[in-house]
Design a protein that fits this description.
By secondary structure, the chain is an alpha/beta fold. The chain has 17 helices and 16 strands. Strands 1, 2, 3, 4, 5, 6, 7, 8, 10, 15 and 16 form an eleven-stranded mixed beta sheet that branches.
Length: 560
């Protein structure tokens, strides 16, 4: 009999779980976990349950017509049995970003499921879980209706005060305009009066229309859903697994994450909740990776993270520092030309994020590696591409890694760019930036013959200027209209389309840094492997800042 913790009535079950149809060569079983939270709190019950009885792409999943679907608890128990039978169990969870439809999420998770079952040759070890939190696309038809219906809802749901101000503003604007256009007998004082009325009413109307546009963009609505539904439902899933799985005391399940955009906000908040703030090891700033009864935090891969830069800066109350220390490895994929983060996200967060300067208001996905003009060698110079913070030791063999803060910066133009070490005072010891390995894909190309980059225009300039951003915007629009347009560029999600970047994201999450190097056919001792990895990244025009702790762990393993 299930314990009370596992009992959920149909109307408050936090998630549903679907199993991917097994492929002929399946080595990694896959599941899709769907939060049952509704896009709108007042959605009718029969509409809110629509996703519980089916998925957008039914052919992807084990769904039998006419048969009742397994309950979430039955699926939890199925996953638990697989974990218990594995000698080295690992779970990798993928979390989508803002404005993702159910179909988009399912297709993306299916792509990862097929990739790992083709390239990961370790059966009975991994379980892949795609996680969908309730996200709303502003232009596509979903539970909230078509774009026209969403527009109608935006006006009909205006608070009374805003609706009155909008009505009065439009009335006075139109009335004043008519008076000024058609009545030429007015005195100068009357003209001035009606002009002032027109300007003031226009300002009031414009402010309210701006709020309506922000609502239609669904950005803040998705932020609320991510925080209040996405985070809590994922924590509940992990809690139920922790409660159900029975393992020996010396055995742990490694828990790793792949997340994109706003999904990075979800996963970092989940890690914060899962971390025990009362753990003595955490208080002493030396927490281990164990959480709960059976889990151990593994690898964290953040792709174009839509979270504040503050998350990697040292400070009196950095909200991620203690929890990030628990992860074995952490990675960030970023690029200077990310239009969604550079403009949309920073504009949307302008009046809510407590920053005094524009630079401090940028997102973590806007972080870039400083460009250099030195020779591409590893003796006394920093390579422009490859592992930028890697240097040969002056005496003896081996390499040393410089502090990441010397190389990371936020660029807005040729004139506006600041290194992280100039933004904040760096204290001694481990700081959040040291925990991440950074892949700056601004100039990344998979095919050197193709002059168009994967996530940016790959113009190889010290900074992208205003004219370059205009060109990049047109390339982004072309990609949005025709995904196969060779001149198009997807600046925000293109990482998952590039051959090398896709391989890096998936295999770093499943295999870790050492496993990723082996998958690239990079062998030899520690020094040779790092050097060859740097060369691979140079070929792709990717700048990498290697985390000192990853390098130290790798060196220690080699010595052992």
């Amino acid at each position: 009999m299930n314990s009370p913790d596992n009992q959920y009535l149909p109307d408050n079950q936090p998630y549903k779980i679907y199993e991917f149809k097994k492929s002929d060569q399946e080595k990694v079983p896959g599941y899709l976990v769907v939060s049952t939270a509704k896009l709108n709190v007042e959605t009718e019950e029969h509409n809110s349950n629509r996703y519980l009885s089916s998925v957008a792409n039914q052919k992807f999943f084990n769904i039998n017509d006419g048969q009742a679907e397994p309950s979430a608890q039955e699926m939890i128990e199925q996953i638990a049995k697989r974990l218990q039978s594995s000698p080295e169990p690992e779970i990798i969870i993928n979390i989508h970003g803002y404005s993702s439809t159910p179909s988009d999420t399912e297709i993306g998770c299916k792509k990862i499921y097929e990739y790992v079952n083709t390239h990961i040759q370790q059966p009975n070890k991994y379980i892949f879980i795609g996680y969908r939190w309730p996200s709303e696309n502003p232009t596509k038809t979903d539970e909230s209706g078509s774009f026209g219906q969403k527009l109608i809802n935006a006006f009909s749901s205006l608070p009374t005060l805003l609706a009155i101000n909008l009505g009065l503003g439009l009335t006075f604007s139109i009335g004043s305009a008519i008076v000024l256009l058609f009545l030429n007998i007015l005195s100068n004082s009357a003209v001035h009066f009606f002009t002032a009325i027109l300007i003031l009413s226009g300002i009031v109307s414009s402010v309210i229309f701006t709020l309506i546009i922000l609502r239609i963009s669904t950005y803040f609505r998705d932020t609320y859903r991510a925080s209040n539904y996405g985070v809590t439902d994922l924590v509940e899933l992990i809690r139920q697994l922790d409660h159900t799985v029975k393992l020996p005391a010396n055995k742990r399940i490694k828990l790793s994450f792949i997340s994109h955009s706003m999904g990075c906000f979800v996963v970092t908040d989940v890690i914060r909740i899962l971390s025990d703030v009362f753990d003595v090891k955490s208080i002493n700033k030396k927490p281990d990776s164990d959480i709960g009864n059976v889990f151990r935090l593994g690898r964290l891969v953040l792709v174009a993270p839509d979270i504040p830069v503050e998350s990697i800066l040292p400070g009196r109350a950095n909200f991620l520092r203690s929890s990030l220390r628990r992860c074995e490895e952490a990675y960030i994929f970023c690029n200077e030309g990310d239009l969604a983060l550079r403009f949309t996200s920073t504009a949307a967060n302008y009046f809510s994020f407590p920053a005094r300067t524009r630079i401090s208001g940028y997102r973590l996905g806007n972080i870039t590696v400083k460009h250099f003009n030195n020779k591409n060698d590893l003796v006394g110079h920093t390579p422009r591409y490859g592992v930028v913070n890697l240097h040969k030791q002056e005496y003896g063999k081996g390499y040393r890694l410089d502090n990441p803060y010397k190389y990371l910066e936020i660029r807005s133009s040729n004139r506006e760019h600041r290194r992280l070490e100039d933004i904040t005072e760096i204290s001694e010891g481990s700081v959040p930036a040291d925990l991440f390995t950074y892949f700056d894909c601004t100039d990344y190309k998979d095919n050197q013959i193709n002059q168009i980059g994967i996530v940016s225009s790959a113009i190889q300039k010290p900074a992208i200027n205003f004219g370059n951003y205009i060109s990049l915007t047109f390339a982004f629009i072309r990609k949005s209209i025709n995904n196969r347009d060779p001149q198009g560029v997807d600046t925000h999600t293109g990482y998952f389309a590039g051959g090398f970047s896709q391989k890096a994201i998936y295999e770093l999450a499943f295999l870790g840094f050492q496993g990723f190097l082996l998958s690239l056919s990079i062998q030899g001792d520690e020094s040779e492997q790092i050097s060859l990895f740097s060369q691979k990244c140079q070929e792709k025009q990717i700048q990498v800042i290697l985390a000192p702790q990853i390098y130290q762990q790798k060196t220690q393993k080699t010595q052992d």
